[in-house]
């Protein structure tokens, strides 16, 4: 889409989409301004985190998508097992299972790459209220890793969902 405009464009990515947008900018896609909403970086630097993507992919490949989603929620997101088991019993969980491949991708890049850290476009990190603690930590750690970035709390965005009106106000103010 950016190549169709023939000029750098502002990009908003949420969750995995934030990581993908940031990755693309790190790979040279011309971006005028990045808006990263609750990117799920764990900033983990241990063997278990390094092995997680392969374990999740093996579950997906074996037709165990639900197990991949719950394993990711427990090991990468840090949700208590009891909470994940309760979540598994809800209709919402059925909507998460088809996204199992995306949790593999989320686990693959636990921290920004050197190319991502070298992005010179303005970066605004958006953090909602009442979100998962790992996402709050991720946003705060990303803000620390990027001295030129701006961390903006968007209290209207709750529970890892974007409030469209509030987010539009934040973006409009920074692009004016």
From TrEMBL:
One of its GO terms (molecular function) is catalytic activity. It comes from the Bacteria. It holds the Pfam family Abhydrolase_6. Residues 6-163 form the AB hydrolase-1 domain. This is AB hydrolase-1 domain-containing protein. It comes from Acidipropionibacterium virtanenii. The lineage of its organism: Bacteria, Bacillati, Actinomycetota, Actinomycetes, Propionibacteriales.
């Amino acid at each position: 889409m950016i190549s169709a405009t023939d000029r750098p464009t502002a990009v908003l990515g949420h969750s995995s989409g934030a990581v993908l947008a940031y990755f693309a900018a790190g790979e040279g896609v011309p971006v005028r301004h990045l808006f990263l909403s609750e990117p799920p970086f764990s900033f983990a630097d241990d063997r278990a985190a390094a092995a997680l993507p392969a374990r999740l992919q093996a579950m997906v490949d074996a037709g165990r998508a639900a197990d991949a989603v719950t394993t990711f929620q427990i090991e990468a997101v840090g949700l208590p097992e009891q909470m994940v088991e309760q979540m598994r019993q809800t209709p919402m969980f059925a909507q998460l299972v088809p996204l199992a491949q995306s949790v593999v991708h989320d686990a693959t890049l636990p921290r920004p790459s050197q190319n991502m850290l070298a992005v010179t476009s303005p970066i605004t990190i958006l953090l909602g209220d009442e979100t998962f603690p790992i996402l709050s930590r991720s946003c705060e750690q990303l803000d620390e890793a990027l001295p030129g970035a701006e961390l903006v709390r968007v209290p209207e965005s709750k529970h890892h969902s974007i409030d469209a009106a509030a987010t539009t106000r934040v973006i409009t103010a920074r692009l004016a």
